[in-house]
Amino acid sequence: MSKRFGDKFAVADVSLEISTGGFIGIIGRSGAGKSTLLRMINRLAEPSAGRILADGNDVTRLSGRRLYRWRADCAMIFQQFNLVGRLDVLTNVLLGRLQRTPNWRSMLKLWTHEEKAIALSALDQFDIAQIAAQRADSLSGGQQQRVAIARALVQEPRIILADEPIASLDPRNTKTVMDALLRINKHYGITVLCNLHSLDVARCYCDRLVGMAGGRVVFDGSPECLTDHVARDLYGLEADEVMDAELPADVPAGLAVPA
Ligand SMILES: Nc1ncnc2c1ncn2[C@@H]1O[C@H](COP(=O)(O)OP(=O)(O)OP(=O)(O)O)[C@@H](O)[C@H]1O
C-alpha cells in the first residue's frame, strides 16, 4: 500500500502479511508513517494505491454495511483515549457495543443486563470495575486508557489497532496499559498492531517488530533480531531517547501474561 499527501508519500510501497494472534509493534521515528499505516487498515485513511486483503476479501473496496462491519472488527485505541468525559466509565465501555446493538436501543441507552454484565466483566479484567460509576474525566491517564481497552474488548474485534497508546503515560501506567493489551492478545487471541515510540517497551511486549523509516518498512522480524546497531540506523539521532528504559525496575523482561 501507499498513501500520498500532495506529492509526499507518508507510506510508500509497504507490503505486510499479518497472521492472526500476533502482537506486532510498529516502530520508527516521528513522521515515519506509522499512524498512516494503521489508519489505512480500518480505512480512516484511504490508500492512494494498493490493497488490504483480509481472509481473501478486499477491504479497500468495502462500502456501506460491509465497511461498517470491518470497522467493528478493527478496534482502535488512541493516544488521547477518546472517552466521553461527561459519561460514566460503564457507559463509555458500553459504547464499544454500539456496532453490535440496534440503533434505536443504543440511542435510548437501553442496555440489556447482559450487555452491562459484559462491560463490567471487561472492566474487572483490568482491575477497574470499582470505578464503573465514575465520570471518565475524573480518571488518571492510565485508568482512562484501560477503560478505552475495555471498550475495545466489548466490541469483540478481530484486530486491535493501537496508535501510540502509552505516549502520554508515566512508566507505571505504561506497564499497566501494555499488560492489558498483552492480556487481550494472549487470552483472547486478538491480533494487536501497536505503534510504539519506546523501543524498550516494543522489545518487551511484541513478538514481531516492523520498523518504518520515510514511509517504508526497513525492518521486519523478531525483537531479538533488532540489534542496537539496526535500531540506531532506524532512529538516527533519536536512538538514545527511545532506547532509554521507560519501564519501572520491577517489570519482568519477556512476555509474562498477567494473572
Ligand atoms: N493529513 C495529512 N496531511 C498531510 N500530511 C500528512 C497527513 N497525515 C500525515 N502526514 C504526513 O505523513 C508523514 C507520516 O505521518 P504519520 O503521522 O503517519 O507518521 P508517524 O510515524 O505516525 O509519526 P508520529 O509518531 O509523529 O505520529 C508525515 O510526514 C506527516 O507530516
TrEMBL record:
Keyword check for Membrane: yes
Source species, domain of life: Bacteria
Primary enzyme class: hydrolase
Keyword Signal attributed: no
Keyword annotations: ATP-binding, Cell membrane, Hydrolase, Membrane, Nucleotide-binding, Translocase, Transport
InterPro entries in alphabetical order: AAA+_ATPase (IPR003593), ABC_transporter-like_ATP-bd (IPR003439), ABC_transporter-like_CS (IPR017871), ABC_transpr_PhnC (IPR012693), MetN_ABC_transporter-like (IPR050086), P-loop_NTPase (IPR027417)
GO molecular function terms attached to this record: ABC-type phosphonate transporter activity; ATP binding; ATP hydrolysis activity
GO cellular component: membrane
All copies of domain ABC transporter, residue ranges: 1-239
Transmembrane regions listed in the UniProt entry: none
PANTHER family referenced in this protein's UniProt entry, alphabetically: AMINO ACID IMPORT ATP-BINDING PROTEIN (PTHR43166), PHOSPHONATES IMPORT ATP-BINDING PROTEIN PHNC (PTHR43166:SF6)
Family: Belongs to the ABC transporter superfamily.
Protein's UniProt name: Phosphate-import ATP-binding protein PhnC
Species of the source: Blastochloris viridis (Rhodopseudomonas viridis)
This protein's encoding gene: phnC
